[in-house]
Design a protein that fits this description.
Chains: A mainly alpha (558), B mainly alpha (129), C mainly alpha (363)
Number of helices of chain A: 24
Strand order of the largest sheet of chain B: 1-2
Order of helices and strands of chain B: HHHHEEHHH
Number of strands of chain B: 2
Structural class of chain B: mainly alpha
Strand content of chain B: under 5%
Radius of gyration of chain B: 22 Å
Distance between the termini of chain A: 46 Å
Strand order of the largest sheet of chain A: 1-3-2-4-5
Helix content of chain B: 55-70%
Shape of chain A: globular
Number of helices of chain B: 7
Helix content of chain A: 40-55%
Largest sheet of chain A: 5 strands, parallel
Oligomer: heterotrimer
Strand content of chain A: 5-15%
Distance between the termini of chain B: 72 Å
Number of domains of chain A: 3
Largest interface: A-C, 141 and 110 residues
Amino acid sequence: MADETPKPEELIQIDHRPPKTDWMEVPVNIRKGMYCYASNPKSVEYVGLPHAREWNPLDEDWKLPENWQEIIHEGFKERLEKFRSFKVFMDICVRCGACADKCHYFIGTGDPKNMPVLRAELLRSVYRNDFTRMGKILGKVNGARPMTVDVLKEWWYYLFQCTECRRCSVFCPYGIDTAEITIMGRELLNLLGLNIDWIATPVANCYRTGNHLGIQPHAFKDMLDFFVEDIEEVTSVQVDYSINKKGADILFITPSGDVFADPGTYTAMGYLMLFHYLKEKYGLDVTWSTYGSEGGNFGFFTSHETMKRLNAKMYAEAKRLGVKWILGGECGHMWRVINQYMDTMNGPADFLEEPVSPITGTKFENAKSNKMVHIAEFTSDLIMHGKLELDLSRNDHLKVTFHDSCNPARGMGIFEEPRYIINHVCNNFYEMPANTIRENTFCCGSGAGLNAGENMELRMAGGLPRANAVKYVHEKYGVNMLACICAIDRAALPSLMEYWVPEVDVTGVHELVANALIMPGENERATDLRREDITGREGVEKVEEGESEGESEEQADE
Amino acid sequence: MNNKTLIIAGLVIFLIIVLFPFWYMRGKAAPAPEPVLTPMAKAAQACVRSTEYMKSEHMQLLDVWRESVVRDGKRIYVNPQGKEFNMSLSNTCLDCHSNKAEFCDRCHDYASVRPYCWSCHIENPKEKT
Amino acid sequence: MNLRYTIPLIAVIVLFLIAFLGAQVPGLQYVFGVVIPYLALITFVLGFAYRVIGWSRSAVPFKIPTTAGQQKSLPWIKHSKFDCPANTWQVVVRMALEILTFRSLFRNTRMKLKEGARISYQLELFLWVGALAFHYAFLVVLIRHLRFFIEPVPFVVQLIENVDSFFRMEIIYPVFKFGLPGVFISGFVLLAAVSYLFLRRLFVHQVKYISIASDYFPLFLIFGIALSGIFMRYVTKVDVTAVKELTMGLVTFQPTIPAGVDAVFFVHIFFVSILLAYFPFSKLMHLGGVFLSPTRNMTTDTRVRRHINPWNYPVPVHTYDEYEDEFREKMVEAGLPVEKMPQPAPAEEPASDSEPEQEEQKE
């Protein structure tokens, strides 16, 4: 964590009262800790996006193309025609203020321009000036202003302080979705090459290597092999997996973050163990892919076109491998893209079959057309049909709460499936307060590409509402584990917890599944996947790291 | 689904509702009714107050009368010209305007007003007695 | 002084003076009573249609409903039908709840940062009550006014009048008399609600900060409309028959200005005309827009039925073949299956200077 990041007791001093000065008179102050570094020109260039150049947000001169105002105006106009959402949302806001205190960034920073309505007004003010007569005549009094460099900087600063979580849209009487406005705004900024690097480089990586982290195929396989070893050490079972396998039943795609960084890695191990179990018991053939080694889609945070370009790999790879349908791992915005965009953008996937679980026979009617099933749907169906042997006591050392990730919550509506799974693999599950979960859930504060290191203050402030609710259940019930179904969450929440509620760890739901899953031929496990003691198993001898397979099996036999 | 058609259909329905009075009343004229004065009213020439005043304020006047008679027992009304009247709907007003249907009701119906005078007072005291 | 509400306030006062003084000039009564109302109505109808058609011309490329409840997935999981509607019928219910009961506003909470760094979110329904009161009072007032535009007055309108004037009250003092003929509650609710909506813009800091002239102007205008209406009915009194003669003249296209119509009436109808003409060019268009919000009016069956994007166009992608060409050797070496085995003479790798750097580990 950056040293400049204020301490929690400093950060909690938030004044939610707006200043006396009119918001148009308050100049944008691009502050360290609150913004992400500018995009690396090589990354922008690699995917062929315009105006790649070296630039620094703190500089006076952003090296904008000469006709940048024209580009913005024309881009704005084009998007008003292409997206009814944009046009209607520009027109009908009545500024009732219902959304004002719903945004985690506003709650955490008190900056009035983080009120969703004002974030939208940043664009709306220019819209009024450029596209409405009333705005042109009345000007500032009526909230209209011409596009200037300062306005552009303000756009950039605040559009990259929105995680597109859609919480405001739940409360808006007209359903105005700031995510939609941010998406449009970021598209416009990208027309001028004004992206942040934490988005631009993953996009370029994903385009080239198939995943955001730029892991090349052989390295990807190495990672999975590494997990296989780890799993063996804990369970004494050597799991088998397929990769790039033609003719498999199912293609599995998950965010690469889980293959790369803790604690997502334990979730990835969970997948490997589940698929191994299903192969041994029921002969299910699941394959991973290196070309499609990314579920997430940072193109979504760049432009619709970039989103489509990156998403195209999923169907292309499924087609190449000749699988029946696609299974998607635990991820947030990945599922917003799959659920609401993929079929429209890159479908129809008529070369795939309507998804049916070969084990339970369940037809996934809700994925009939796009042919992609969420792993929480898949696993909860397995549990419901009693197809998994589970030992819940292996999660007894955990007191679990569940964080609904923004996109699966408000862009998909997957609330019950993960809870069903957690309740069937854990004995101790506690919900956070009702106003902070399900459709009211709070963002981790780092979504939509804002999970960088340099904007730590922003992330900690934005994550405050979430952390505060976790703290509540931690103090009330002793909750020590925060479960989620999002890879960004697994990357972002640990820092957030460390900052606000250090006693709580973060896990994916399938890590919990794997802990409870009784693998054929396994030893009696003394620890969970993280090698932490399981309650009541303290007597069981632990498997030392580096011991060979044979030895551990012997121990298990004793 | 062609949602453009749906939107236009919705718009048309909305405008039909908004313009309802225009198409509903098309080709009809609805001039203000002319209250009929009885020979006795004509002969009296003036009401308790001016015609203009009576047109817009008669309901208020009657209400004040009722209040005065029922609560205070005062029955004499003096108009600005100094003339005295008995505060009585039945005996003063309906004495001249004995034609409720042609005098009172016409305008009341036109303006959609349903005064509750007639829940106590009989319509034409002269005829009934 | 905040120009954002002083300018609209002055504007409404000026409009009042224009109508009030203008109506005293005999010839101008025709302008205020006939010409302006017709022009306003034409502006309203054409403007409204123009705006809605404008929206309809914009494409709906993606199905982006806000899912505010459990999706329809496995048969044994309870589907939240009206917060995550899976078919058109359920969308209709969701929209009806939204439009008729302001359901989303009903969720409103107020955030408070309390001592001990605890954040709470309490249900806050004043806005919902105020908005509901305002809109329904306005609707009832509008329906009641049909008595001036239809002859004979339909039974439904009479019924609403009877219900609306259910409470009788009168105040009779020598100087102040009020309450006859019957008190229409809706008018006073409208006045109170519009005052509340104004006061909250003035006193709720966050709302004050975001309010602009076009938020205040309609509030002042509607306040003026309600006040002039109430004034006419209960205080100054007008010759209702003459007023109806005027309005019926408008409706039947036989415009006339009968004698004895008070100036307050011209103020009232002038305010209404301004509101009508202003409507299509303002945020008041939320009346139409609320039906078109893609986050509310679409089904959430995005994985069941493919939504068509009318402007979907092919985009450049990085194909598997290109990918394998770049990494073939490494794949073969790692034992990963490939489509084409490497050539005996190893092909040159593509220029690597344009390759993005590998993401550094963030944790």
